[in-house]
Amino acid sequence: MTAKKLTARQLIAKRRKSLRNKCDKLLREYCYARDKNTCQKCRKQYLTAHDCQMSHVYGRARDGRLKYDPHNVKVLCFRCHLYWWHENILEASAWFNEAFPERAQYLKREHKANMQLGTITTEWYEDRAAMLAALISEL
After folding, report:
1. To pair with 66 at 20 to 30 A between CA atoms, which of 43, 55, 104, 120?
2. pTM score, two decimals?
């Protein structure tokens, strides 16, 4: 049985998917360590990262460039993430702005700037993975 030869477009898509998976893993590792596996809302600490969730301030579909920005992610427990953050959007937004004012201002600026940029390239994913790896090594 011979292996199917991939087209250039398929190879690029495969490389991007691999880079996205790497970025997901690195971002998760960094944010759980930064927040010490602690829900940033109710402050409950968990023994493992599997008991809490990463929650994006700007949703992944709303701004793809912020998806892998650690400032855009906070650790929340399952209850606070699904039953508070997603159900009480105005209250949750006000809480984030008060609890993390510098991050909130940074994200507003970045989101506005990102609206002017074009498509995310493979090189962008490579740069983001390198940045996340460097952040982890600093912990």
Report:
1. 43
2. 0.83
Determine phi and psi for 38, rounding to 5 degrees. -115, 130
Q: Residue 128 contacts by C-beta under 8 Å, 6 or more apart in sequence?
A: 23, 68
Measure CA of the first residue to CA of the last residue in the chain; give whole Å.
Answer: 48
Q: What is the pLDDT of residue 29?
A: 93
Alpha helices in the chain (DSSP H): 8-34, 78-80, 89-99, 101-114, 122-138
CA distance 132 to 135: 5
Taken in order 24, 58, 107, 38, the sign of the CA dihedral is negative
Q: Which residues of the chain have pLDDT under 50?
A: none
CA dist., res. 72 & res. 27, Å (int): 10
Q: Is 55 left (phi over 0), alpha (psi -120 to 50) or beta?
A: beta
